[in-house]
N-alpha-acetyltransferase 60
Amino acid sequence: MQTSSSSSILLNLDIFDTESIHVLPNSNLSITFRFLRPGDQSEVKILCRDWFPIEYPDKWYDDIVYDKKYFALAVCDVCTQQIIGLIVANILPIENCNREDQQILNRIFSLTASACYILILGVVKEYRRQGLANLLLENLLNTLYRHETCKAVYLHVLHSNKQAIQFYQSNLFQYRTHLPYYYLIKGEHLDAYCFVRYLNGGYPPFTLTDFATNAWSYLTQIKPCRLLNTIRYFLTDKFLFTDYYKRTSTYRQISRIV
């Protein structure tokens, strides 16, 4: 779980039309979007207890309602006016993210570049498989595209939550990091994965894992000559070049190739 920070970046939420009613295709469900407001805390608390195995403190529910640094968008059933889905996120400068999350962007980006962290995204069980989670995520992404210094949106997910992992992968999120013993749930330490979607020109750091992944991709595409060339340039750069500038220049070229 990402800790809150006073250095969060405020988003312009005036662009949203929270009065319109939308009818979902292939469904009789009419929905409307709105941001959380005072009085929602109890309802959101019940939802989060149903959706997630983590217990959030009462102050956290007050924060996401009152603090404008949070993008806290709810989708409601027009007939019942009840919240049936919710996404909460906030933007932080990379330098203010948790230490384990500061490596999601390539080093070429300054620490003043920002990333958006999704704290929660959930839909009431009876309303799932109607595209509500996609709509909530789409609204967040549309906001982030207008915030050009935000280079990535990321989240943590329990390693065993296959349904959530498949959802984020289908929405172009990439697996970046395995976080052992990240969650403490009912006295048991459980692993988490970090998933990232890059935007506004952002991209991940280049690692040996990326090299291996790309090598496998080249092999499956039957391009052994290109792969061997990449390896040759990589080894030449690492072991034969003694000039620092030349080494750095060649490494960057190989990063682009791979």
Strands lie at 22-23, 30-35, 70-77, 83-93, 114-123, 150-158, 174-185, 188-198. The longest strand covers residues 174-185. Confidence is low (pLDDT under 50) at residues 241-258.
